[in-house]
């Protein structure tokens, strides 16, 4: 289809190759074939939407006359092959063909330059393969984005080995190689971290690099060395301000992680304008941006368009822990109904991993150790005045500065090549310029000068990704089309100054915390290592309970980051709808500000009742947390209003009851219940949040309690009840129809769950991108969704919700394994989870609530089995509510109160087991066991909260179901007293 566009330039290229006289005829054919493949892919990505749009127009207007859809497609292809075929198609899109000719011409010219350089340099390239290079057999031009006139990294495979062509200076690669040799002189060469060997061109405009193959480690010893080496890279990149070291820039070659693209060194520090979410968050974000997270080596989930939930890190990108992604695909190909659609696809494998399924937890301490030992070496070298001269050697090396994410450029390019933009280019170009300037407003350091912005757009129209470079000794950036921006600065001196201010222990904590970002789930998985067992001690239970709770809460206070405006936050591993990442706390209940506020409010309440020991500063800290939540919600409202005024669509927050809008509705009601905020404010703010739920539910793909629509149902119903009960003059959100309106909204969420349910298999399940057959459990699966629907049926009287709830419970029952007395975890095949998030604890908590409300004998059996399995397998993993001992404790307390607990398991025994393991190991919160997290469900804050609830007179509400209820003494908790 594209031959009329591609073949004439390729014929010219072939003639030019012959005139060079440096490539044999077979080699010329190899190069032409490789360029043809690359050109065809690149050109089709640019023109496919125009082709398919015009195909559809020809079909609906009757221009295609063949008898069937296949024939009409062939007729369309034949039209494009006619002498003026492309001119006719492109007529409504004036810039299309000129832009295509430029793109194709640039790529062909770049290929000719590479071929000429290869022919001239071939004799010395044998140094990179250990012998004669031999004949060219294949080329691959998809090793990176194209820049500056179609130039791209290319792999050339020859009979004697492979080499990599880099159309840039490789001076920084050689300097980094020298640096590594000098700071690691005693490391054995075969296992020392390295970069590929390089050969620069005489004029330093391009270079050649060794090709590094992907080789798995041979044994556990090599794996240990590999992860120690990752720690070495972290130390080096912290010292050299390295960035953008994602999975594609690191190749695992046995025990050595080889950085194959090291051009982003001496990266200027990110700066940002005040966010409006509080100075504490701005300070915390600045700390995070300057930490090891900036290197790209450490795991963390992306929130960028098209990459949401992906961990692209060099240490992560685990194949079984990546979300599915939406991929543009042609539906009904080969017919006149062909059209672009989005389909779910898997991300391609990467070469960064040292084994097929790495166990990060087993080797992560080696990463910390590697970082520590090389950082100590660097500090010693600095103390002797040796480090500054080593860094000075980089001063005149060209380096790249990533001022805008490649993803942003990709999306802008798609917009500029869209049929509507090609039909009327000026508005599209103006819009692209506006977006680039807006980006610069939000990210100081990105260019906003008109000349630079226009040059960026020109590069995108050429089919290239704009690139910016500098030398660390000068600091002025050179951009597309020779533009420049920025002031002169000594990036070497700045980098050394920032490194000297680094706190190594803070960076070690970042490394420990970041590991959880490699995993998709709740920070826990069946089968991870358990804590060493302990012999429970039953003496002084209440004293020990108070001591443990006070210690945790005191650490929460100590770790807080304060702003001068009275705001406060923490940096911790945080779970969002995109996954885990180390960042400042959001506002949600699961691990964010609302959860911390509930912990602090609960603690102060118990102090007032003499059931907890005073901790200084908590009253002020709680007020600051609530103040910060208010700042965040008010600023988000302003941002939404500004976006609406500019007709900009913002991705809605998820609707969930733990992560999302539902959690914040619940959070305001909980804070009112605990006496922290007045009722009129709680109702007003919660009602305002409820207005956001329709858009959130429309975008929901998870459906569950944690992030999905099911999680918002019960908080909405509780809000409706509180609005109904409020006095008529109680403020906003209390007019006569507010309660019915909120219940109707909850019913709409139920309708969506009805529409998204799958009846394939037993009962009903809810497919997601990650789990097409749906899963079980309370937080993410059938039990939780069924529980919310049962509550909705009770509140609305709608029988269809009750029927769907029963179908959900039938699905959960199908996972029950009578031989194990537990429920299979559908994510893990035959494993049986015993946690709140996935497994018996969550299923049992729901069963207890349903039993209390409905009195069904069925739920007695579920609760008995769940409690027995929780006692047998739910302890010893972590201490959290989500997937640890304090979640299992609550289930045992509930079951024991109904006489359904495991025989012989007393409240004192459970309390003794909990407190002894806390004293022996300290609070552990998931796979990042050494990382501090103050949050409620998966952090130490929740551990403290449950320790408060161990007291027999404590009436703090449970948080293991999203039920904003009136305070009342929960039943069946262990006494925890001696």
From TrEMBL:
Domain Lantibiotic biosynthesis protein dehydration: 93-470
Origin superkingdom: Bacteria
A biological process from GO: carbohydrate metabolic process
Transmembrane region(s): none
Name of protein: Type 2 lantipeptide synthetase LanM family protein
Organism encoding this protein: Natronosporangium hydrolyticum
